[in-house]
Write a structure and sequence with these properties.
This is GTPase HflX. It is found in: Cytoplasm. GO terms for molecular function: GTP binding; metal ion binding; ribosome binding. The chain has twelve helices and ten strands. The protein folds into three domains: 90 residues, Rossmann fold (3-Layer(aba) Sandwich), CATH 3.40.50.11060; 61 residues, no CATH class; 178 residues, Rossmann fold. A six-stranded mixed β-sheet has the order 6-7-5-8-9-10, sandwiched between helices. The chain has a two-stranded parallel sheet with strand order 1-2. The protein has a two-stranded parallel sheet with strand order 3-4. With 361 residues, the chain is of the alpha/beta class. Strand 9, helix 11 and strand 10 form a beta-alpha-beta unit. It starts with a strand and ends in a 15-residue tail after the last helix. Bound molecules: guanosine-5'-triphosphate and magnesium ion (MG). Guanosine-5'-triphosphate binds next to helix 7.
């Protein structure tokens, strides 16, 4: 990790990088934070530091260097040459996790497209280095066997995948139109990765799926039916988690699933209140939503309160408001339902007449 003067933020960022490495199946043996206000254009952290890292890697028996920043193709090559280690950046790590978790044809298409778009500019003028990629983190996924093909074939593959993705997008649009015709309000659950979105959705809707302690566990968001007191039938839709500095290749590839967020009548922003750096994660999500042009009203759910420190929770409520919930213990879920119903009525959703009866609450 590199600290360019961010202080504690840089520490949190480095821990997250270690967590991402674990999620990708790697074993982080050493975390090094380099203080460097100005980056070295060629070696990022400077040649002296690289020598140090090289000997550290030797003593720890490590084979890979993972950087918390995005490396230019030249930097990656120079660092590899200088250290003799395999070099990965954060974007490659994230793409790799997505590849591991992509189980459906649509998600696989999206991930392969993102991988190839990231790879393409890094292939300019070098044919033989493709085979250097070997195996392990950063080389997995639907694109894996195709890494050996040349640039032209890569471009053809990208065109083919884009076409396929358009077909999936069209199908999603059709499903959305049909849902609109039925007039059932849509609530999207958004938030940072691992915030507890899927678990909360399961507590709110009927027949969800269990969450997982992994980054980017959800890649193909499911939509589930539910009921809200005083409103009636609603739909809850899960989403792909956000992360700071989301690789733009992924945002482009996952745009179709994010369209669902833009169409939602209401958002639940799930913020993990039990992990450090909640304010930072809150901002990252809100900024990404703004970038995507999402304007829908939000209800904030402060999640995992069963393991949150009371003072942190107090601080977050003071700053942001929000409904404290624990999807695991079930606390706060009925308060959240009430807040959601109230917010839906505020944005002009008309209650279904029979939903007024108390037995449906
Ligand atoms: N203690 C506690 N843990 C929770 C709670 N809600 C979720 N978790 C745990 O947090 C982890 C992540 O939960 P998920 O629901 O998968 O989170 P997510 O936001 O859907 O994550 P991605 O889909 O990977 O972005 C899982 O291990 C859950 O069991 C809660 O209320 N309390
Ligand atoms: Mg999830």
């Amino acid at each position: 990790g590199v600290d360019r003067g961010e202080g504690p933020e840089a520490e949190a960022y480095l821990s997250e990088l270690a967590e991402l490495t674990r999620t990708a199946g790697g074993v982080p043996v050493k975390k090094v934070l380099v203080f460097r206000p100005h980056l070295d254009p060629r070696y990022l952290v400077g040649l002296g530091k690289l020598e140090e890292l090289k000997s550290l890697a030797y003593h720890e028996n490590a084979s890979t260097l993972i950087f918390g920043l995005e490396l230019t193709p030249t930097q990656a090559r120079e660092i590899e040459k200088a250290t003799g280690l395999k070099v990965l950046d954060r974007t490659q790590l994230i793409l790799d996790i997505f590849a591991l978790h992509a189980k459906t044809p649509e998600a696989q298409t999206q991930v392969e497209l993102a991988q190839l778009r990231y790879l393409l500019p890094r292939l300019v003028g070098k044919g033989k280095e493709l085979s250097r990629l070997g195996g392990g983190i950063g080389t997995r996924g639907p694109g894996e066997t195709k890494l050996e093909v040349d640039r032209r074939r890569l471009q053809e593959r990208i065109a083919h995948l884009s076409h396929k993705l358009q077909e999936y997008t069209r199908r999603r649009e059709e499903a959305r139109r049909q849902r609109k015709r039925r007039g059932v309000p849509l609530i999207a659950v958004v938030g940072y990765t691992n915030a507890g979105k899927t678990t909360l959705l399961q507590a709110l809707a009927r027949g969800g799926e269990p969450g997982e302690d992994k980054f980017f566990a959800t890649l193909r968001p499911l939509t589930r039916r539910g009921f809200l007191p005083g409103v009636g039938e609603v739909l809850f839709t899960d989403t792909v988690g956000f992360i700071r500095q989301m690789p733009k290749e992924l945002l482009t590839a996952f745009r179709a699933t994010l369209e669902e967020v833009r169409e939602a009548d209401l958002l639940i922003h799930v913020l993990d209140a039990s992990e450090e750096g909640a304010m930072g994660r809150y901002r990252v999500v809100e900024e990404l939503l703004a970038e995507l042009g999402v304007e829908a009203l939000r209800v904030l759910a402060l999640s995992k309160v069963d393991r949150a420190a009371p003072y942190d929770l107090f601080y977050l409520r003071e700053k942001l408001g929000g409904v404290p919930v624990s999807a695991l213990k079930g606390t706060g879920v009925s308060e959240l339902r009430e807040a959601l119903a109230e917010a839906l009525l505020k944005v002009g959703v008309r209650p279904q007449p029979w939903a007024q009866a108390p037995q449906y609450t």
